[in-house]
Amino acid sequence: MVHRPGYVLAPVLAFPLLKELTVDDLIDLLVIGGGTAGIVGAKTAARLGARTVLVEQHRTGGDCLWTGCVPSKTILSAAARAAMIREAAGIEPDFDKVRERISATITTIEPADSPAALEQAGVTVMHGTARFVAPGLAEISDAAAAGMAGTAGSIDGAAQRIRFRQALVVTGSFPSVPEIPGLEDTGYVTSDTIWDLTELPPRLVVIGGGPIACELGQAFARLGSEVTLLARSGLLPREDPEAVALVQASLERDGVEVLLHDQPARVHAATDGRDGTVSAGVKVVTTAAGRRLEAEVVLIATGRTPRTKGLGLQRLGVECDDAGHVVVDATMRSSNHSIFAAGDVTAHPKFTHLAGVHASTAASNALLGLRRRVSSTIPRITYTSPEVAAVGHTAATGPGVRTSTVSLEHTDRALTEDAAEGFARLVIGRRGRILGGTLVGPRAGESLGELSLAVANKLTTRQLAGVTHAYPTYNDALWNAAVAHASGGLDSPAVKTATGALAGLVRRRRRGPKSQPSDR
Ligand SMILES: Cc1cc2nc3c(=O)[nH]c(=O)nc-3n(C[C@H](O)[C@H](O)[C@H](O)COP(=O)(O)OP(=O)(O)OC[C@H]3O[C@@H](n4cnc5c(N)ncnc54)[C@H](O)[C@@H]3O)c2cc1C
Ligand SMILES: NC(=O)c1ccc[n+]([C@@H]2O[C@H](COP(=O)([O-])OP(=O)(O)OC[C@H]3O[C@@H](n4cnc5c(N)ncnc54)[C@H](O)[C@@H]3O)[C@@H](O)[C@H]2O)c1
């Protein structure tokens, strides 16, 4: 992906470059997994001059490229366009065209994440499944390699061993599927398999209320499916409640039935009622509260499970938490000091940008012996319409913490585009320090970079207010929230007394001392 090399540090030739790698070589960094974290971690290591081998069992690019960010953002864009066309011309979208657009986007981005691109960056790529067998030793089953001199893939099904100084575990996560009676027999899709649907489901039940459920629920509703979203929590539990209310209202306007604080109790195949024969492909979800939901497709979007089983981590003393995540410290090092981890396999929030940044930090810490800590400023965006973008604190908790909110109803760009639903809310600490905030509206995510910069650099509302912003932009909402706070400070009694006294002093200076005769 084009943005990923940005995470890679400037080249420092800390290790001798190896022209050709053989199995007898001791490599500097073994990277297990070729998703975002693996790609960025391996490229960082190769740029440092380290002998780096990346092992991928399926396809490089990982979730983000094949089943995550890229297809989901593409389908959201196609669905938004489809909804506009339906409204303007009454034309229904062609699902085949939508599928073609998704694969075209993946095909365009894929070369940047390919084994060839990694090889070009100096990484040796192996195809196979890796596991640790002893300290400093990993086994790659069904191995096949590009760039491994006359070794791997030569013996069918044989495992290959590889000696390493340090390793980076970046094996990602997979969809968690709750145990619901009847679900396995009746069938369901997850964010891994929904992309294989060849027809738009007339009815879709989405189980879950997180970003996957909201994004895909809205996309399929806009494409024409009748969608019911069922979550045992509220929607987007981590987000500002006012932002969530806007997302829920928008989903409902798109025709999504939102059922919250309820969950599936069982699933079975529908019968046609008279002779008990099974209706082709129709599933019935009965909820704990007793609702009966029928759909051709059930999407499970109830969180993720880290992929650590069978990796041999225990053998190396690598601690995992109860959910299976590799436990890492702030430098991304595990309880075994030669093993680092990053991305979805850790308990950090599951975002591509975080996977990339953390893997880069892990690789440079491992290879250069640094103790660089990862930042706690973590931006996130849910790409529904309206978008919800947030970073740092999103609520005023604690003494002296306040919020400043500007509605898009007072933001001219939003008014010119007839899209005034949303707001910018800053959370502000003592002396006007920006602690975080939430931006909601069209392209809210595009303004999040500025807010993240402010939070990460401990900027104040006065500093943000002091920067001229071009007019009209959606960004004006964020800017005006800072201006409102910074100038609101001027209204406080203490500041009024001080500025009054200062103004008096300036007037007196201009007039000169009282004893002097006036010029007039
Ligand atoms: C539908 C959806 C939408 C998303 N949208 C966004 C978004 O808009 N923005 C965002 O920031 N994030 C988004 N995410 C999250 C993002 O996709 C993940 O956080 C990111 O892909 C994690 O990258 P990773 O490298 O840790 O793991 P992965 O991408 O899962 O890569 C892990 C790789 O390791 C390989 N592997 C596993 N075990 C082994 C082994 N033993 N040997 C060899 N190889 C192995 C796997 O085959 C896989 O390729 C989305 C996720 C989903 C599911
Ligand atoms: N825009 C983005 O950055 C983006 C988009 C999609 C996914 N992601 C990442 O992928 C990860 C997974 O997303 P997700 O939406 O699957 O998970 P999530 O963990 O964010 O949300 C899971 C949801 O499922 C609900 N749930 C769990 N079990 C349930 C059950 N049995 N019945 C009904 N509801 C149930 C929970 O209440 C919650 O609402 C997220 O952590 C996120 O970081 C990011």
Automatic annotation (TrEMBL):
Please give the positions of the paired cysteines in each disulfide bond. Answer: 64-69
In terms of Gene3D superfamilies, this protein maps to: 3.30.390.30, FAD/NAD(P)-binding domain
Which residues of the sequence carry a binding annotation for NAD(+)? 208-215, 303
Query: In Gene Ontology terms, what is one molecular function of this protein?
Result: NAD(P)H dehydrogenase (quinone) activity
Pfam families, per this entry? Pyr_redox_2, Pyr_redox_dim
Query: What does the entry's cofactor note say about binding and number?
Result: Binds 1 FAD per subunit.
Q: Which cofactor does it need?
A: FAD
Cite the entry's keywords alphabetically: Disulfide bond, FAD, Flavoprotein, NAD, NADP, Nucleotide-binding, Oxidoreductase, Pyruvate, Redox-active center
User: Where do the Pyridine nucleotide-disulphide oxidoreductase dimerisation domain residues begin and end?
Assistant: 378-481
Enumerate the residues binding FAD: 73, 171-173, 344
| FAD/NAD(P)-binding domain segment(s) | 28-356
- Indicate the transmembrane segments per the record: none
Q: Which family does it belong to?
A: Belongs to the class-I pyridine nucleotide-disulfide oxidoreductase family.
Name the chain's protein. Answer: Pyruvate/2-oxoglutarate dehydrogenase complex dihydrolipoamide dehydrogenase (E3) component
Species name: Nesterenkonia aurantiaca
